[in-house]
Specification:
By secondary structure, the chain is α/β, with parallel strands linked by helices. It is built from 12 helices and 15 strands. Helix 2 links the parallel strand 2 and strand 3.
Length: about 350
């Protein structure tokens, strides 16, 4: 099959390209190459897979270039986006143009040039907003839900808090509606905290990799809030297996949204638990700086992944401890990339 991956030079895109190229599929990476690490990821993919990988430099905001490139695709993984809440607050117009207009462009290009393609969209748990009405309990080292023992389900009302939440949420809903109105084979994955190799995390996005990179490279780490915030972590390899199952089951799942995250069995607090884990890997204490809470920062987010488990016959297999150790080893072995 022919895979067309927007944001294909990025963290999830390059890992997805590697996985599906190893299965014998042809991959087109569509990327504007604006992110740190993109050139290194493309070079690595080409070394691994040769002519199975082709890069088209383009921007999803440019409908003409996008529509010329997408024709003939069997699978579209729409991963390109503006990824940081803080950046969206600073520049909401650019955030809207990339995430909302860009996703609309992808859907229109699919509708006109490859209407039978399976289309998977990387949405976000931020579509559920700050969840201020959800009861939170503060414990010694972490926050927890007062209710929701399985995490937050897809039936939770959407609340697009922050420009980023609005733009990604608009794309989320467009994907669902294009299945309903135009019959496209779309599937939305509301992703939690994804981490793993080839993630060039920075302070405002990709915090797991950012903390690992900063520790190894002796750079400063800032903790916003009290560090007890809890997230469910999902290793990128587990995410890509969910993509694979979503593609296989697209006709049964078209027009649906699935939470895809680590779930309640794969959680970690941002610093009170992650800090000691990093200190153990580094063999030293990790100094930090403290900052105020950031807008839209949830005290807890844990995805209820039971629907994905049932519909995809899938579940996470890599624990945060094992996955973070693997990421730490990769960064330590490739300091020249950072």
């Amino acid at each position: 099959m022919k895979f067309f991956i927007t944001g294909g030079a990025g963290f999830i895109g390059s890992n997805s390209a590697d996985y599906f190229a190893r299965q014998g599929h042809d991959i087109i990476l569509f990327d504007n190459m604006s992110r740190v690490g993109g050139p290194a990821n493309v070079e690595w993919l080409c070394q691994q897979h040769g002519n199975r990988i082709r890069l088209i430099e383009g921007d999803i905001r440019d409908y003409e270039v996008l529509s010329q490139a997408i024709g003939g695709a069997d699978v579209v993984l729409h991963l390109a986006s503006q990824v940081a809440v803080t950046t969206s607050v600073q520049n909401p117009r650019e955030d809207f143009e990339i995430n909302a207009l860009g996703t609309f462009n992808v859907l229109e290009a699919v509708r006109h040039y490859c209407p039978d393609a399976a289309v998977l969209y990387a949405s976000t748990n931020k579509v559920y907003g700050g969840m201020e009405a959800v009861g939170i309990v503060e414990k010694d080292n972490r926050y927890a839900y007062a209710d929701f023992p399985h995490g937050v389900p897809e039936t939770t009302p959407l609340d697009f808090h922050s420009p980023y939440g609005c733009s990604k949420g608009a794309g989320d809903q467009y994907m669902i509606d294009y299945a309903r109105i135009y019959g496209l084979r779309t599937l939305v994955f509301r992703q939690s905290c994804i981490y793993g190799r080839r993630q060039f995390g920075v302070e405002d996005q990709g915090w797991v990799a950012h903390f690992v990179i900063a520790t190894i490279m002796n750079r400063s780490i800032s903790i916003f809030g009290d560090g007890k915030q809890v997230r469910d972590l999902l290793h990128v390899s587990d995410l890509i297996r969910a993509y694979e199952m979503g593609i296989e089951k697209i006709d049964d799942l078209r027009g649906q949204a699935l939470n895809v995250g680590g779930g309640p069995d794969n959680t970690l607090s941002v610093w009170t638990e992650f800090g000691p884990l990093l200190a153990e890997l580094a063999g030293r204490e990790i100094p930090i700086r403290r900052g105020d809470w950031r807008p839209g920062d949830q005290r807890v987010f844990i995805a209820d992944i039971r629907k994905a488990q049932e519909k995809l016959d899938w579940q996470p297999t890599i624990s945060p401890a094992a996955g973070i150790r693997n990421l730490y080893e990769w960064v330590s072995s490739n300091p020249e990339l950072f």
